[in-house]
Amino acid sequence: MSHVSIEQRVDRLHAGGVIDMHFDLPMDLYEKRGRSNVLATEFLPEFEAGGMGIIGAAIYIEDQYLPERGLQVALGQIARLYTEAEQSKRCVVCRTHEEISRALDSKKIGFLITMEGVEPLGDDLDLLRAFYELGVRTIGLTHARTNAAGHGGIFAASGSSPEGLTPFGRDLVRECEKLGVIVDLAHINPAATTKPLIVSHTNSRKFYDVERNISDEQIKMIGQRRGVIGVNSVLVSPKQETSTLDCYVDHIQHIADLIGIDCVGIGFDFFEFIYRQWPESKKKWMAEKLTTPHFIPDLTNHSHARNLTRKLIERGFGDDDIERLLRGNWLRVFKELL
Ligand SMILES: [Zn+2]
């Protein structure tokens, strides 16, 4: 196939918009809250270059704000997201499947607000309803930390807490299902016993064996529920040299081999833009406490999304399968649950 025809094929595959279910955008917007048009100037060009359609915008509270300021910072992050989306004139916050479809049809970039770790709720179940009203539609109960809902999966091959969810965590899952909030099992500890629905951003332990990633058994559980697993770009391999686009596609292939291509999606978790703003001391803290992220050189931000599609073509994926991976599978879940 000629270079031109491959580029045309990528154009066609991206025309409906790519869906990435995990991006730590709100925390960066919040840290830069003294400025305006951060989204339009620092992120929108990359979203446009990558042909992005829907992005899971993750509320995440850094340790420095916990426990006292978790709720306040979460509200601040959501507020910044709405304000910045409006200023950008191209982005919009979506709450329903209909709003998602409308955003894609009108070539806007839609945000689905997600929450990574329920620290902002403390142990107050009522606050879930408040965040639902603010637009939160996906909730991951824990990050690597322990909170009132449960214990996260750690960045090592063993050693996570033997307990999964607490009684409060179980109540939260039930309440999420009642309200119409998607339960996200990213960072879940293997001992958790809820039925899985989606994992917005993770990798297979076959290639990178840490408990923060998921085992074949967990992948099969998600397949049984016809959920979707978003493949993460920063935990594909324990080594930098083998953290490549091909390895990213190996994860896609492995999950598809186990549970079918209908259950695989994108959860890039592009984090390099935050990491590079950190002082060395904070990078060292992360390496010791969690892990050192390995960025894939040609898959580091949203402008690189086309590189993935090119690689999928090169690896022999058909157009129908690529469209499902880039968008269709997530849309199926949104249609069912939102
Ligand atoms: Zn995460």
Task: Give a verbal description of the structure.
By secondary structure, this protein is of the alpha/beta class. 44% of the residues lie in helices and 14% in strands. The protein contains 13 helices and eleven strands. Strands 1, 2, 3, 4, 5 and 8 form a six-stranded parallel beta sheet that branches. A three-stranded parallel beta sheet has the order 9-10-11. Strands 6-7 form a two-stranded antiparallel sheet. β6 and β7 (150-151) form a beta hairpin. α1 (3-14) crosses α12 and α3 packs across α4 (70-88). Zinc ion binds at residues 116, 186-187, 201, 269.
Jot down its keywords:
338 residues; alpha/beta; six-stranded parallel beta sheet; three-stranded parallel beta sheet; 13 helices; 44% helix; binds zinc ion
Write a short abstract of this structure.
The protein contains 13 helices and eleven strands.
